[in-house]
User: Fold these one by one.
Assistant:
Number 1:
Amino acid sequence: MIAGTMIRLAFLLLLLHLPLSGQTPPVPYAERVKFVVDSYAHPKSTGPLGYANIAAKLRLHEDAALCSRRLEELLAEGPTGDMFWMFPITAIAYLDQGQLSPSARQALRSAYRTYMPYRGDTENHWLLYYSSLYLMAQLWPGEDGDRWYAGKSSEENLREAGGWIESWVRLTTRRGQGEYDSPHYMGLYFLSLSYLAEWAHDPAMRQRSRMMLEYLMADYGAESLDGIYAGAHSRVYDRPAVEKWLNPSSDFGWLLFGSGRPLEPPGGYIIYYALASAYAPPPIVQAIATDRTVPYTHYELKRTRNRWRFFDELHGPVYKTTYMRREYAVGSDQGGTLQPIQEHSWDVTWNVPDPRGVQNTFFTLNPHSSLRELQTYFTFPPDQGVAEVVSSKKSYDSPDKLVGGSPYEQIFQDQDSVIALYDIAPESRFPHINGFFSKDLAEVREDASGWIFARGGDAWIACRPLQPYTWKPIEGGGRRLFSPYLKNGIVVQVAARAEFATLDAFRAAILALPLEFQLASVPSVKFRSLRGKSLSFTYGETPRVDGVALDYAHWPLFGGPFVEAAVDSEQLTLKHGTARRVLDFKKLTVTDTK
């Protein structure tokens, strides 16, 4: 108990940004891991233990008899949750190490024979399922199919699971992740790979998993703004889309890089990561995630989720651009329905000292809802499609929603300038655009020129809606810009507060920039950015910078000052200063050079 109290005290001092005696914040990595484990092993609530509490106590070799009794109670209630049941049980099985009673261990083994978990329909589901199955087949080798829920032997399960994991790593390192850059679901990829990195017996699987952890750390780190995951996301939930701290990515930013603040208490994904390998980022990844000395543009190529209808190719390309600096980040994809339901296509995110409860973001979207979108990405019958989605993702069919992609939205970004154009079909369900104006924006000014000026933290934001609009209140604070025009768009330019002493100075600089647009036929914009670039963008055409069209055909898998990878290379190069770290997934080697 004394050790647990000291960890809590250290964590409290870290949150208050006070130095600990004899050391300087942040708390060392090992202490952060201990805090996460302790928060679940010694929960503040007095209710019955859950799977995560049992696993954490087993990790600390505490209360084995209590853990055994409670595990039997939970299993007697009947397993539920499919792959979300599998991964907690897998952790308990590997953390047992002789602590559980024979009856508890037998109950666990019996559950894996009688309960048949659904494999799921998303990338994170499949990785959770197969990493858990791989490890449990490894734990119980040589058993026939009648000992397993699917009727396959231990060896067959191990071979199937290992084959899928290897194919996923190969596809991801060649063409990008499908469920990419999700500030929520990233935790499930991290914990699955943490399991394999720690508990897989096969040296190649352990090495592959550790390298993939570094791969995903660098992917996240390059777009991390003091722990906040910036830029475009494949999936994000409604409230965390606007209150960006409220995502599991905050836990990982704090644990891995000492950035920002973790959730309170840390969420259910980070504990399983910490209970397995708790793999620490190498110094070069730590530097990538925290060095914002010089502004930079970072590029990524991802892929869409599996498209089951209406397309000849299973995956489509996702072209991401993110501009990062100390004060703010601007990030986007090219627009369109690249992921169903929860896509987040572009935003401005500004840095704040304490992000808890703060809506530190600005963006627009067309709140699209259609059966065609769902039929593209799901296989359920059409007569139940929308109802099935809305039962769990309640905002999907709402005209007020602030999450989702649209086939009528196209986006172009150059550094900290964004042009979003909309050509909405008259028959669409919600033929308007929504703009999220946070309760935490300051100095908001609607100018006679048509520009709207505001400040978010140390970022000046200028946005020019191309059509008239009205304001609608948002429950909990903030306003929604509502513009009900089929041909529409918005031009956005961001700058650091240090670049302009006052809002008036920023306004004068923006009004001096040439801007031309027309909406007849299709929306089209010509704009000279604050960075001296001539930007031209017409809906349905390739954007141009200084007269040169963007080269989507040669978009890198990763490109920028910190992370590089070529399409199909299965190789990632991490860079910082003179240091280089090359992850070669064909050879499963890691090479450090200067």
Number 2:
Amino acid sequence: MIGNFKRLGRKLFLTLLMASLIFVSSIVTANASVAPNFKVFVMGPLEKVTDFNAFKNQLITLKNNGVYGITTDIWWGYVENAGENQFDWSYYKTYADTVRAAGLKWVPIMSTHACGGNVGDTVNIPIPSWVWTKDTQDNMQYKDEAGNWDNEAVSPWYSGLTQLYNEFYSSFASNFSSYKDIIAKIYISGGPSGELRYPSYNPSHGWTYPGRGSLQCYSKAAITSFQNAMKSKYGTIAAVNSAWGTSLTDFSQISPPTDGDNFFTNGYKTTYGNDFLTWYQSVLTNELANIASVAHSCFDPVFNAPIGAKIAGVHWLYNSPTMPHAAEYCAGYYNYSTLLDQFKASNLAMTFTCLEMDDSNAYVSPYYSAPMTLVHYVANLANNKGIVHNGENALAISNNNQAYVNCANELTGYNFSGFTLLRLSNIVNSYGSVTSEMAPFVINIVTLTPNGTIPVTFTINNATTYYGQNIYIVGSTSDLGNWNTTYARGPASCPNYPTWTITINLLPGEQIQFKAVKIDSSGNIIWEGGSNHTYTVPTSGTGSVTITWQN
């Protein structure tokens, strides 16, 4: 009889295992795996939390479903709005207390950019108004090809930028030193939407997808910077003319491109084009170097946590037959290798977006969008340079299981160290229960976490005296008619008192039901309660059930 039971259990187990392998292979096709320290985060809401009890319930739901931490914009426009060095951290301290109480880790994002006007922005949070009184518009804001001024972030040409950030960072460090136990890492904002880039594709300035956007270097400060860079490189205007094939008479005649799309179809191929785009990107990398230095000096002694920055996945026009990579060039991405070299030199982790997208429009006009190819390229560079890299989805995933599958494939194929989902409201309702998107999120992404199961302990109260006999727990996750040994616990002798504590490792968010069987001294299988009693294992915490054996 025992042999029959074991053979039956093995057959059912193998059947389920094969089915599981078939299912998993349809989800994750990559051969590699995530980094050993892989963690999953979720972006907090853009809006201010008004009900912290409800927020705590949301965070507990994240915790119970295997999420490691939550990322939070620390808005400059909230904290230092009253005036320079006049900080109000009360809201974020309540926020951090709530994160700690829920058992999650926290990733503050030092959001020195504005919110509002970009895709997904649901609130309007400008940069503190007093900031713009520090210098002229020309020195502090971006100016594009059409003459539009942009105030999404302070221009990197403003000489007082690092001092402003130093004040903000220092105040955060001194006010949140007691929260270092929950701070997993800290991110710094390098430009619009918290990304290291130019505000090249701003809908409020007329941009629509998949347009290339606009170059952002037409202020007097930017033009002077370009002229000085060329003077430093070539020394004389004659050397410039020799390299560019021009007939300039003075460095003051050097300017950014003035011929619109023609630069992106032909001009970028020239020596002038290479010099311009190299300089244009170098402004970003120099800014990154400066603010990273400030961040390390303020945060390292206090938190000893990794510091990172984000690069946007500008994936459209990647394969354009007329002006390839034009959207990337406008955003400041000319040479990803040298861009990542600065991440390495500044000891920064890197986050890259658009992991949820595929290359289905790679050769389709007018998109020529190749996000998957771009992710692979940047991730391979990061791996080769030894840079810790993390992923995000660029746009909210709305009940699109394939998008979660795409994320999983990228994460497992390119040694990512973490993933952050945009955004909390997609997977948890305002009152704390899961939405329909939680399941694909957990199945495809959270379960990639090494040792990503949740131990659940419950106690069996054995109401009938069968001490010293073997007990099996036989579980199922779906059809109650297909009991199997996937969650078998046993044989184990019931101790000489009527309780037995069992720990089962469940996948995040998973519930199983179980039945109990035992084998008596004659080798007979005895189903508890005549095989009709089933119990649901709780997904978190502890549980207790009473089992009554049928004599």
Number 3:
Amino acid sequence: MSLHPKIEAITERIVKRSAPSRAAYLAGIEAAVRNGPNRKPLSCANLAHVFAACGDTDKARLRADVTPNLGIITAYNDMLSAHQPYEHYPERIRALARSLGATAQVAGGVPAMCDGVTQGRGGMELSLFSRDVIAQATAVGLSHDAFDAALFLGICDKIVPGLLIGALAFGHLPALFVPAGPMPAGIPNKKKAEVRERYAAGEATREELLEVEAQSYHAPGTCTFYGTANSNQVLLEAMGVQLPGSSFINPGTPLRAALDDEAVRRVLQMSALGDDYRPLGHLVDERAIINAVVALMATGGSTNHTIHWIAVARAAGVVLTWDDMDQISQVVPLLARVYPNGEADVNRFQASGGVPFVFRELLDAGLMHDLKTVVPDGMRAFTREPRLDNGTLSSAPAAAVSADESVVRTAAAPFEAQGGLRLLRGNIGRGLIKLSAVKPEHRYVEAQAVVVDAPQKLNKLHAAGVLPKDFVAVVTYQGPRANGMPELHSLAPLLGMLQNQGRKVALVTDGRLSGASGKIPAAIHVTPEAARGGAIGKVRDGDLVRLDSESGVLEVLVDAAEFAAREVAANTSPALHDLGRNLFANSRALVGPADQGALSISCGPPAHDGGAWDYDAEYELGCDADAALAPHEAKDA
């Protein structure tokens, strides 16, 4: 089917906007490729260091320089349930590579912190910056010029974006991302949320709360809700850099092992010494980035990717904006409801049709680009389900109909005509809301502001019984420059409980929410942040705030002259105990705005100081004449 005209127009605009930076990126790849397979430039001393610790077979092959050497970047640690299965992957990969006449080495490890552990804790202030550390650590691992292709073992929140950014810095290398799969289903997410809210109301004991949490997070594998980790997997498949249908196959199963082995075989074929050279930097182009955003919107995925994928795009020389994401969301229907965007977990999503079903619907509707991917059949390969046929890996077409229409639907009969996210604009700034997770009756809130500069202060106001019946919690100084932009998921039980009582509540913040957050109308990532002098810092207790999710409006109803004359309130919260925070002072000082990827490292085209992209100039260049986008142009003009 031909591409949807609105997706085509948005793509053309991004291509035109990105032309200089994308050309520079591709030129860098071509310069690296001219050196040939990476070990050729190494001196004898360089090469001797590479194979010094190898066994005789691998040493002989690396000396001869005639077979591919596979680099492994791993995020293994055994505290994270999602990454614990990776413990024995390197030895399995080495053994299989050896049997195929190649070699494999662990090029390096990257940190992998767990936002589930650090929620509401001081360590959360390191979370967003860990993405950039992971990117740098990936680059360090690949810097030895000893590898002809790379496998990336990582799943969770900041880890996959960090690995992608680092991998794209070595875009001349073929690359494949290898998931380990979700843990089996535990307690229903809805029951867990109910107990959390009862605990916040003082109606459940700590022992009861711990028991439901333990029943939810109970085995090796990714957490089963559709948060940032599982959204990562869908976006990787949408870009064609992970094997088709591999995202949600459970750890320890024969099919998981077969897919892991196939990843090794395939990436070796893609190397410059194989027969199908496919460098990562050629695969991840403007169309691949569009596909990732389309998949995010169609599945109601994590809001964190409105930051991460802007950074990933920049690493490939592509300039993606929030306006692009918003316009894509208004074209793409919502095809999946997975917690917190529904009640099902990812195992049920997989059983209902999963990624192959959704991608088939999107491709047939002309909403995704067909791409060159890590497999020869392009994106159509991602509409097939992996199977084992007498121990041999095969695939079958996605189911013709959904196995559960409460979880997955067709493009002709979606849950909603528009996708998961919406861009908000107004005199407070620009922010985002996860519309798909909020029921229609809660999408408009107009109430007085309760302003705090730390989430803990809102909990104290509730404990003191002084919160108004209806209110908008405005939580400031939570942006990247202020404190590293921690997730504020710890507020969800309180605000969810108050909403259950029939009260009108909403959240407005320059911070982030967890990929697991939903239900409460929340304007997040508000830019410019308070620490940059943003207008969110001018909101005062008692101001009337309007959050209109459907119309994309975020404003304080205060006389314009009065509001302009106000000073940004100071941050009165004392600094947390360090927990390593002091080591990230440079990151806080250098980090860019959320709408430019919140990058604290140099990555792709230069950021613009504290402001959004110059949309007016872009439209004057004639980047988009499609009448369907005219309403957005009028808003920006």
